[in-house]
Amino acid sequence: MSETKVFLLPDLGEGLTEAELVNWLVAVGDEIRVDQPIAEVETAKSLVEVPSPYAGTVAVLHGEPGQTLDVGKPLISVTPIGSPVVEPAESKAPVVGPVETEPAASVAAETYRDEEKAGSGNVLIGYGTPGGHGVARRSRPRKSSAAATSVIEPVRPVIEPVEIPEAEKAADDLLLLRTRVPGKLGAVISPLVRRMARDHGVDLGGLQGSGASGLIMRKDVEAAIAPAPAVEPRRVVEPAETRRPRVEPRSVVESVETGAETDSRTGLGVTARTPLRGVRKAVAANMTRSRSEIPEATVWVDVDATALVEMRAALKKVNPHNTPGLLAFIARFVTAGLKKYPALNTRIVTTEDVAGGESQEIVAFDGVNLGFAAQTGRGLMVPSVRNADKMSARELDAEIRRLTAVVREGKATPSELGSGTFTLNNYGVFGVDGSAAIINHPEVGILGVGRIIDKPWVADGQLAVRKVTELTLTFDHRVCDGGTAGGFLRYVADAIENPGSILADL
Predict the structure, then answer these.
(1) Is 133 tagged catalytic?
(2) How many angstroms from the chain centroid is the CA of residue 315?
(3) 30-35 long-range CB contacts below 8 Å, 24 or more apart?
(4) What tens digit of pLDDT does each residue of 3-35 get?
(5) Which of 62, 133, 441, 477 is catalytic?
(6) pTM confidence score
(7) In a designed cystine with 338, which of 167, 230, 345, 505 is the match (CB 3.0 to 4.6 A)?
(8) What is the count of structural domains for the chain?
(9) d(Cα 6, Cα 171) in Å, to the nearest integer?
(10) Maximum pairwise Cα distance, the chain
(11) Residues of the domain holding 359
(12) 40-44, 125-129, 281-285, 336-340: segment of lowest average pLDDT
């Protein structure tokens, strides 16, 4: 009997718990090598290729293009080269066999850890694993010889096959093993489940988990939030041998036949339904959380940017191919302002003590990772320039251009998209003057820059036509008051109005 290795969708980091399977790059029966890309997946952050940590023959592809896969769920099964392959007679779905000395979740957790320690050393582009070369090797022996058998195999000739839901349950248990609730030995839950319970006011101490050893699972919390209706909708049950994962449509917009559906509230016909997923789903969740958690306030000021525009024009005459853009100069002023007003370069973190209580603290940073909003075909993305406070305007300009190209190609990594400490938003490119922006949670401030246009302006007691823009600062009122916010905004405005003197001091 061949030992089939099952590669689970790896931990994507940055709070990402799922990914949409865009395209398979291999097929069942193909021989693959270590680090060979096997699938393209789209997360709420970027589009990436997933390389295999194993070499061998593809036995099972766990999913169809368009399907959303959870982290820790099976992605692909690989049979090592040279092993006798037994084709499953009834189904291509994985079968879970019992383990004599360890619970299935414990064995699955150890298998997953071994996959990360061994194998390719490159489980997911942009994330990676600690190392390893070639075929995965076990770092410590099993408790018994029976446990040495792979957790998931294509065929168990002696043991009665178990249905697919049990395989999904084992993968769910694997996710739940990662976090233990202090003081509750039997209640092992994931951070996602804990947050869900906290947001909906569910007392975990009063729940009886449905998982192994009393594990509290997501479905237990969902049942406590909204009990299941008495009558379930009619559904067709397929035999275990032919059951396949449900495939979601790949199209972003689902067309509706004219006249086929009428909206009950407006009385108008429905022309299309657009699934909220991917980047749009992530943006919606982040913006909703920002508005619900952050007591924000907004201040703004009109700025005479004539001197900055003229200074850049003069620099461009001298060096037409290597002159920073206006946004890069403003970014340089912003990082300098954050050094002077560090309260706006912080983050509020909620901590949990041993007794289960929560407290908040303001975390300050040694440096500035400056995020900037970039419009892409996949939606609004916010890549961040790491250690932006240590860069010149020219270096900032080069990094802003590089990151803009990366996010538009869908190749940005989570660290490039989720490491910002403050955001700069140039909504002037859309031809608008101002905006009450929503803070990019969990940051505490966002500065918006409107379009630069000719306006009448009083300069030296005389009315003149000047290049004017509007700066808008939205800030978290928990970390600072209006004096700090106003001081920072005025500092950036003064730098734009007198760029030569400010740059000389930097």
Answers:
(1) no
(2) 39
(3) 30/57, 30/58, 31/56, 31/57, 31/58, 31/81, 32/56, 32/57, 32/58, 32/78, 34/119, 34/120, 34/133, 34/134, 34/135, 35/120, 35/122
(4) 888 998 886 655 567 888 888 999 999 999 988
(5) 477
(6) 0.58
(7) 345
(8) 2
(9) 11
(10) 95
(11) 280-505
(12) 125-129
